[in-house]
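A favour, since you know our structure tokens better than I do. Go ahead and set the record down below.
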Amino acid sequence: MPSNRQEVENNVKKQEIRDSARQMFLAFGYEKTSLAKIAKHAGVTANTIYWYFKSKEELFASVVEEIIQAFLTAFKTRKSESLRDNILWVISVLEVSRAFIVTIHEKSRTSQVIADVHQSFHDSLAEISEAYLLEKEMKPTEIKPYITLVGFVIEGILMHELDEKEKNDIVSLLEV
């Protein structure tokens, strides 16, 4: 919990910048979004952003981390018994952030900050999935390769525009 009013104001300002950045990245993509655009949208100067974030990459990573945490919280509370339903839910939620996913894959090759966020997401999703698959009595030696396969399928579907039938047909092949 913040200890004083200044800290609260700093946290609020940082969140306002992050919210503006999310909107700008979604609207214009990573490459076409400048810190100046984000600053203008947030009602601050570009230099103010540097008080809170070291770089555009760090700001983008912070936005992505926030999205990931919201996603993981929602995923952990799902009560679906069907692996297929869970995978389709993951795809439907992530499709909203398709632009972020494409950028994460592109930038993770050249940015360690973004690569770390990407890996953290995969690790968190794998941890949740492993617990689920153990409950379904999958052999422990099959879990890691299966999770990797599911990740590839999800990312592949997200990278291509498929209709609902195609998504369902592909995901149905993953039933355990």
Q: What stands out?
A: The two ends are 44 Å apart (CA to CA). The chain has two domains: 1-53, 56-176. DSSP finds nine helices and no strands in the chain. Residues 1-53 form a domain with the Arc Repressor Mutant, subunit A fold (CATH 1.10.10.60).
